[in-house]
Amino acid sequence: MAKPFHLGLTGGIGSGKSTVAALLAKLGAVIVDADAIARSLTAPGGLAIAAIAQQFGPEFINTDGAMDRDRMRTLAFSDPDAKKRLEAIIHPGVAEETRRQAQAAHDAGHDCVVFDLPLLVESSRWRQQVDHVLVVDCLEETQITRVMARNGLPRSTVDTFMASQSKRQRRLQVADSVIYNDGLSLQGLSAEVAALAPRFKLSLASAT
After folding, report:
1. Which residue of 1, 102, 105, 147 has the smallest Cβ count within 10 Å?
2. Which of 85, 93, 49 has its CA nearest to residue 67?
3. Distance from C-alpha of 16 to C-alpha of 162, rounded to nearest angstrom
4. How many CB atoms lie within 10 A of CB 43?
C-alpha cells in the first residue's frame, strides 16, 4: 500500500488555517488536528488531567473535571517554566495520538493526511516528518481583527496570544506553499486550495 502524502498545515491565530483544513477535508484529506487532540487530553476524563493536577495543583482542574484553560493560560504566559512543564505532560500524548490517527488513515488507504499544527515551526521534529508545509498567511492586523471579532477578546489578549507563536516571517521561511488569506472570500479561498490540491494527491472529484 502506498504511503499517504503527509501535509503539514500551519498558520498564525486568525489566519484561516482551520477553514483551509476543512476545505482540504472536503477534497478527501484526513485531518489530524493537534489542537483538538490536546483539548481531548485536558477535557473531563482526559489522559492528562491527573498529571496536571499533580504537577500544578487541584485548583487547575474545573469542577467538571477539565483543565481550567483560562487559569493555565495565564500561568503559562507569565511563567515560561510552567509552560514547559505543561508541554512535557501534553506533547507526548499529542504525539502518540497523532501517530495513531495517521496510521489509521494509512491503513484505510487514504491518499493524503493533513497534520494541522499551530506549532509546526516551533517543533524540531515536524518539518522532517511531512512531505510539504503549507502556510496560511495574512497581515498581522488582519489576524488581530479576526480574533477580536470571533472570540470577543480585547486586543491586549490577542497580542499576548500572537506573541506566544512564531513570527510571521519565520513561518513563511519554512513554507513550501503559501495561501495568502487576506481579503479573500470563502470562494476565493476555496479556489486557492483547489489549485494546490493535486500536489497533495487530492482530487477535485472527491469534493462533497
Report:
1. 1
2. 49
3. 14
4. 15
Q: Which carries the bigger pLDDT value, residue 203 or residue 16?
A: 16
Q: What pLDDT sits at residue 206?
A: 57
**Sole residue written with cell 507569565:** 78
Among 116, 115, 61, 63, CA closest to 89: 61
Residues 6+ away with beta carbon under 8 Å from 123: 117
In this structure, of 51-60, 184-193, 199-208, the range with the lowest mean pLDDT score is: 199-208
Residue pair 100/92 in contact (Cβ under 8 Å)? The answer is no
3-state secondary structure of 135: strand
pLDDT at position 208 over 60: no
Q: Which backbone phi and psi does 178 adopt, to 5 degrees?
A: -130, 135
C-alpha span between 160 and 75 (Å, rounded): 13
